[in-house]
Design brief:
CATH topology of one domain: Amidase signature (AS) enzymes
Number of strands: 11
Bound molecules: glutamine
CATH architecture of one domain: Alpha-Beta Complex
Structural class: alpha/beta
Order of helices and strands: HHEHEHEHEHEEHEHEHHHHEHHEEH
Helix content: 25-40%
Amino acid sequence: MLSIRELKKKLSEKKISVSELFDEFYKKAKDSQLNSFNYLIDPEKNKHLINESQLRYNNKKEELLDGIPLGIKDLFCTKGIPTTASSKILENFIPQYESFVTASLLNDGAIFLGKNNCDEFAMGSSNETSFFGPVINPWKDSNKTNENLVPGGSSGGSASAVAEGICVASIGTDTGGSIRQPASLCGVVGLKPTFGSCSRWGVVAFASSLDQAGPITNSVEDAAFILNSISGYDKNDSTSSDHKRDNYLENIDKKFDNKITVGIPSDYLKDVNSDIAEQIDLAKKHLAKLNINVIDVEFTTTEYALSTYYILAPAEASSNLARYDGIRYGYRAQGETLDDIYINTRTEGFGEEVTRRILIGTYVLSAGYYDAYYRKAQKVRRLIKEDFQRIYRDVDFILTPTAPNEAFKVGEKLDPITMYMNDIFTVPTSLAGLPAISIPSGLSKNNLPLGIQLIGNYFQEQSLIQLASLLEKELKFND
Ligand code: GLN
């Protein structure tokens, strides 16, 4: 797979035209059997973008992502192009406006192939909750069954498509791990920026205090290219931060000038299997080679993170999803009375997992239980944030596994709690709002990819990317 930098070089040296490059990917995406796209955009619709991009190359005035074919998670509003959140309730929804993130990419010359499949409303860890059916991971358990494996979720279509090589990169969203966990299960890179870095304007809302957009790519450098495009202040998102953004490509090939310390939380490693433990040992070894200091650290709040997340995220979801009433847009069921229309629409329009979250969320927000669950969870969330800041007094970065397991079989984890456990290492970072990146580190005994997660402090994406890139070169996963 060529990197964005290499593709841009080929385009500017006229070794390939923008339209040839696009056609090549479009054909692969069309022929793919893995269900990673809900919708492919008719190439006719992209023609003017392809022509404009070619013209800029001809005039040597190309933009950051000119002519680069991308996939977009089907959670971003794309003007005039179906946006379904992989839900029946939005099956026929065509947005009238462009999300901030996709508008930024278009401004920088990127061309969209289509909309990537995902878990319904981004709720899930295996892409099996999608109304449009599961996505298949391009990796196979070569030692064993050859059965279909999940790509992880919720941005499973994005990760599968990048791993299969049918788009150069894809944009996902991460609420509790949905960029990082699928990246880990598919052997690609996934970056969740600091909360507030990338505007949520035009992103179908799941949990507004957690949702963040970010890249899923083949390399850390590609992630930096994309982040340079999509990160920025937006007045349309009240949680958008006006913190200064760096050029994330700037230090990507440099070593650190000063001594860096990475902390590895021993509490994260207590019950991990030998495959996962091996990845951490491997990473440790390479960090030492890079002359980076590694120390053990210990959180006191990790065991509370998952339950905190699974109170707060459903609470926010139940409120955000109240807008799907069948009246203003989306699917509408028949009914005798207005109440019947609401009830039938929501009963028929939402899948099982989304319904479960709405019920949990409504329950924890109800007058009788608000203090016991929602308020308590908010307090624990603050303690989790403080726990991270305590650790950051001693270290510059934190290293953990991304997920507790390799890709599992489609249909294997049927009960919700087992599924929720997949987020155990990604959720604490989400609750704290910190930036984190998953990079592929090696293969399991079944020859399946595994990832490691690097976590930075707020708005430290530049040095986080620098470290991830150094480690990536040491690990040589793609060589
Ligand atoms: N798997 C987690 C959930 O189901 C995280 C999803 C996400 O990050 N969007 O909530």
